[in-house]
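Subject: complex prediction, re-run

Hi both,

The earlier run crashed halfway through, so I resubmitted it with identical inputs.
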Amino acid sequence: MNPIPHITLLPGDGIGPEVTAATHSILVDAGLSATFSTHAIGWAEWCAHGEPLPSDTLDAVRTSAATLMGAITSKPEADAARELAPHLRDRGVRYRSPIVRLRRELDLYACLRPARAWPGVPCIHPDTNILTVRESTEGLYCGIELDNLDTERAAMIHYDLATLCERTTGRIALSARITTDHASRRIVRAAFEQARLRALARNAPARVTLLEKPNILRATGSVMLDAARAVAADFPDVALEIENIDAACMHAAMDPTRYAVVVAENLFGDIFSDLAAGLSGGPGLAPSASIGDTHALFEPVHGSAPDIAGRNIANPIAAILSGAMLARHINQPDVAERIERAVARTLADAPPSTLTPDLKGTGSTQSLTDTIRRNLWSNDDKRVGSDTATQ
Ligand code: NAI
Ligand code: MG
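This time it finished cleanly. Structure:
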């Protein structure tokens, strides 16, 4: 018999605790077989202890089957220094994003962001159903940055940069885009596997669109393109298309059905998945999974929304759908489908008095969660399909 999987809950900041509590209760009521423990992460930890990712939290994440996170507040460097507990100031303690650190420590290289429109929810394109597979360890977000470049340092990096420094007055900064063959191959492979699953669930041809800009970003772009073509040879049943990221954004805004599974490096994937979320219903409905070979973390795409925190009006659905992805990841697909069906039914049928304000309702986080809960075990068996499949 398999041991019962353990789930780490990281509520975090702002609306994070509200949407995490809602999701936890839905997972339990939907019949997820798991144990749970809650751990601290985020801004409050930084302010009190100078470390937003405590070591016991990292240990808990490392040893659990999967992690569900709410949201974390990050602020610019000056605010981080000002809000730090007085006894920790001027000691050289620096804020590092706990999300970026978790992704690195656990090698969560693939971020899966499904964006689908839901019947009953007005949106720009009701036929949107796109899974963005975003590389999460390198690209322009790799953190290799230099500020206040002078000619001497610039010369060590690139001849043209040194010339630029010589000719320009004022501050010059550089952020590097890193692309490795290793990371490119594994993210493309993850996308092809997702495309296969989707095609199977819908009985449709499998296809992956790689979004890049190799005509301008020639060195890094060609690493990604070569890797994609090499991996494609192992997936003769999946069609590979390659498009420029800028053109793809325009095409998606006009006709999102052009895309099914897209794969992209970190920045391009971040931007494109937000676009897809915007076309299909907004921040309250967009879930995500960050997957590595050994660990997985699930969280809504939205942030801590300080403007609505603590008011019981945050839409919990993005977090709840992330919970469904978690259930599927730990091999409980029946639980995942039950949750997705309940969300679909709620969005299609629930009166405005139960919906949160972002869905043009007058209800609360609590009333929306309660309605989804009631719909978990209703007999009307609307199939919604496993579009958020993570395995
Ligand atoms: P945000 O996603 O928190 O909020 C953007 C807008 O969407 C706000 O008007 C907010 O009220 C609304 N919104 C977000 N989630 C919602 C929900 N579930 N229901 C209803 N409305 C919702 O992004 P913002 O304002 O740029 O960032 C706020 C904080 O969150 C910052 O400290 C930022 O660093 C952090 N953040 C954290 C992320 C994470 O934990 N993965 C991701 C993005 C931002
Ligand atoms: Mg983003």
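The pocket of NAI (ligand 1) is lined by residues 15, 19, 71-75, 99, 283-284, 299, 302-308, 314-315, 318, 358 (CB under 6 Å).

- K.
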